[in-house]
Amino acid sequence: MAEATRPLPRLTELDTQAFWEATADKELRYQQCGGCGKVVFYPRQHCTGCVDGALAWKISAGLGTVYTYSVVRQSYHPYFRDRVPYAIAWVDLDEGFRVLTNVVGVEDPLTDVSIGQRVRVTWEAHEDVCIPLFEPVG
Amino acid sequence: MPAKDRQAAIVGIHEYPSRAVEGLVSPLQIKAASAASALKDAGLNWSDVDAIYDAGEGGGFGGLTIADYFGIQPSVIDTTNVGGSSYEFHAAHAHRDIASGKANVALLTYGSTAHSTSTAIGVGGGGVGMHPADNLESFYGMTLISNYAMVAHRHMHDYGTTSEQLAEISTATRLHAMRNPEAVAAMTALEFLDIRETTIDDVVGSRMIADPLHLLECCMISDGGGAVVIASPEVAANCKKPPVWILGTGEATKYPTAGGDITTSAAAQSAPLAFGEAGVRADEMDVAMIYDSFSITVLTLLEDLGFCKKGEGGSWVEGGRLRFDRRGDGPALNTDGGGLSSNHPGMRGIFLLIEAARQLRGESTSQVDGARLAVAHGNGGSLGSRHSGGTVILGSD
User: Fold this and answer.
1) Distance from A5 to chain B by nearest Cα, in Å?
2) Is-above-0.90 flag for pTM?
3) Which tens digit of pLDDT belongs to each residue from A3-51?
4) Cα separation of B250 and B260, whole Å?
5) Quick check: B140 and A88 CB within 8 A?
6) Number of alpha carbons in the 13 Å side-chain half-sphere of residue A85
7) Total of domains in chain A
8) Residue A68's domain spans which residues?
9) Cβ separation of A90 and B207 shorter than 8 Å?
10) Which H or E run includes B11?
11) Please, what are the domains in chain B?
């Protein structure tokens, strides 16, 4: 039996397509309105701040702060159940958007992840996309 | 109570008794059996129903499918589905539709076999990629519990809330469940290992599922369902049971935003609307039926409903304040045993209305003496990401 793998995004989903395509080049993209300046995330075609703004793609520096997290002890998912305990987190990027992710690169997620912790994006490579994960800075 | 507050009342209720139907009953059959019993409770018949409210969880086209299945011809059809709080939204819409003269008898039903069919609950109807946000967030192993646990973690970080304080919600709810024979039967049918009143130590000593939430802070997954009949004052006057008036309602949504506060829910928006319309305050509530998917859901909602200030919920619930037999300093919480210990087939909002109505009729197994006012608040979707909030204020004559 093939080993279970992390579930992967649909590259045909129209709002998020460009986001995922950019991950192949390890770019963490977000959108900002050229009219009103609103940062938009998850990606969309319309600005949520004004009705006539055009959204431009920007590339994040990939630095942020753990807003909150949980360490998952029990999962029934064929991939994740063998990886408990692992940290799931909402991370606030410095450019002003919030992403769901895993905090990785720690010895023990139970003690080594914290709210307010500075983190940096790191990429898990797959065939057509890279999945953005985050690890503590320094 | 002024006449303008008497625009629509709950006149019939039924909670489907079985929590484990083992493939012998379908969700549609649960809905129909519950509807018939609720109509009977009111002294009404199928032919009296002129408005149908349906979340579509039975399949097909919601209000269309269910009207056909029930064999009724309603002239108001509402298929609102905003997750587990759909029934608070349905009650709000029924109140509005009856007050406007569009309807006289509204029927709300729910049926689910989530336990028997091992259906994942709390995850919505769609699959990965159905919504653009899902196509960003579905790859990190966020279990439903960890979604809520992230709210709890931030609440603890910002306000010093403790697991012992969150456990108060579980212990009060279990106390009420042990007094409710249907809840005890449910825990038995679902093979709970240790069916008894719990202590704070029991809860914080139970297995950690997703930090900081323990097993005994999580709801069950059951089968079940129920029905609620809401009617105009003219109809209510001739029903078998005393009317339970809908005094005010509020609706809202909440989703992740940059810099947003995960510890504040949609209830912060819906509750002032509901209490404002009803002209009453949270501290006047005798009973609080609050969606208890997890302990943190209740703590967050108690604050957002205005029982205490944001961040003070932990100390506010201490000392068994939420027990039905503690009067004078707070409402009785989830007196049926809640989703934690009685009934959670996936969308438990209808049970909040049913038990609130029981309390205001004097029919609860953990009856609050002289209960006159109750709030039912449903939270649909997921507290830690995107969710809906529906608040309904109810009062007896």
Assistant:
1) 10
2) yes
3) 889 999 999 999 999 999 999 999 999 999 999 999 999 999 999 999 9
4) 21
5) yes
6) 20
7) 1
8) 17-136
9) no
10) strand B9-15
11) 3-116+220-395 (3.40.47.10)
